[in-house]
Design brief:
By secondary structure, the protein is an alpha+beta fold. It contains 15 helices and 14 strands. Strand 2 and strand 3 form a beta hairpin.
Length: 389
């Protein structure tokens, strides 16, 4: 049976939510991002994009390019609430769907043509979402995730594009290589230096050469250039929490060492959170004393996936929690109130340097393993713990 994959992407989502709540913001250059000049652009309207503004750009530069724009710090709670409305609408009618971020979804409609035209059904779903949420959304449909996502991006805003089976290569060929998902700035720049600026030219490259130049990602590049993507639509589920605990070989009262352990735990669990493209709004710390008494303290925070934000909260909670001066045998960290959302668009106070640094460390962890890069204060901790996970 041929696959039918629908990609749905809410247009300029943060901007659209702000305009839904305040119609006076419609039609003007609007930028959502950090409250200070050191922050970055989380989202911008198409009116602002005409001036060269784009997401992840430093706020100070956006102000130079578009000084007459309206700047808002953003309201993640509102964005998550609206995202959940869209999720509920899709969940009511979709046979199988995946939520990959706060504003992006895939639906597997394979076999639906036996009962109703898949594209007709997708178009009606798009209309329903727009009508019931008053938010604009784009869709692309094809035989796989890759081509559907590219189609959505290429024809936004208000896209409604069907790339029929057998025409994937024809559609992809003239596009710039940086239109292919997961091709970052460095890879795109390297390809451009080699004279490979379009997908058609990338497709002409021998797969062995791409593997020698890009390692295991080389084969992935070759497949994407040929419109090949067999990745499945992963059923959506609302995960409630993530947690990690460490039990020590010997009970301890070394507060400095305990803080280092907590920092290492945050580093690990926040990486897991970002790998799942999620954010947290509630952080808890648990300690167990040598007599097995267990105490927990938690606090609600604005949605985040930032290490430095959660480390600060965890250490603050630990300082309030640990007041007995009794030996400790176990500590734990728990994240709850989870929502889907990409890190880059969720951080309203991070600087460009903060984002680049965390993206670089995440890349190293993903490629070489989580233990390959750590904070200096968290080195050489595992030999003192019975369990860390």
């Amino acid at each position: 049976m041929d696959r039918t994959i629908i990609h749905l992407d809410l247009d300029t989502f943060f901007v659209s939510v702000e305009r839904k709540y305040n119609r006076k913001l419609c039609g003007i250059p609007l930028i959502v991002g950090g409250g200070s000049n050191r922050g970055v652009v989380a989202a911008c309207s198409y009116e602002a994009r005409k001036f060269g503004v784009h997401s992840a750009m430093p706020i100070y530069l956006a102000k130079q390019l578009c000084p007459d724009a309206k700047f808002l710090t953003g309201d993640m709670e509102s964005y998550c609430r609206e995202s959940n409305l869209v999720t509920d609408i899709i969940a009511e009618v979709a046979p199988l769907f995946e939520k990959t971020s706060i504003d992006e979804f895939y639906v597997d409609a394979s076999g639906m043509d036996k009962f109703v035209g898949s594209f007709q059904w997708a178009s009606q779903l798009k209309k329903t979402i727009c009508k019931e949420t008053n938010l604009p959304i784009s869709l692309g449909m094809s035989v796989n995730k890759l081509v559907s996502k590219v189609a959505t991006a290429e024809f936004k805003p208000n896209a409604e594009k069907y790339i029929k089976k057998g025409s994937e290569i024809e559609f992809l060929s003239p596009l710039s290589v940086d239109k292919i998902p997961m091709i970052g700035k460095r890879t795109a720049a390297f390809l451009h230096e080699m004279g490979v600026d379009t997908v058609s030219k990338l497709r002409e490259m021998p797969v062995k050469f791409l593997i020698s130049a890009f390692g295991k990602n080389g084969e992935s590049l070759w497949k994407k250039a040929h419109g090949i993507d067999n990745s499945p639509v992963v059923p959506f589920s609302r995960q409630k929490s993530l947690s990690t605990e460490s039990t020590f070989y010997e009970d301890t009262i070394d507060v400095k060492w305990l803080r280092s352990v907590l920092m290492a735990m945050v580093e690990k669990i926040m990486f897991q959170l970002r790998q799942q493209r999620m954010m947290t709004s509630c952080v808890a710390v648990k300690i167990r004393y040598t007599n097995f008494d267990t105490e927990t303290r938690q606090t609600s925070i604005p949605y985040t996936s930032s290490d430095q934000v959660v480390v600060h909260i965890v250490l603050e909670l630990f300082n309030k929690l640990y007041n007995r001066r009794m030996m400790i045998r176990m500590v734990g960290v728990r994240l709850s109130g989870l929502v889907h959302g990409n890190r880059q668009i969720s951080l309203f106070e991070d600087t460009e340097r903060d984002i680049n640094l965390l993206q670089a460390t995440d890349y190293i962890k993903h490629k070489y393993g989580i233990e390959k890069i750590k904070r200096a204060v968290t080195l050489n901790l595992s030999h003192k713990t019975k369990k860390y996970g």
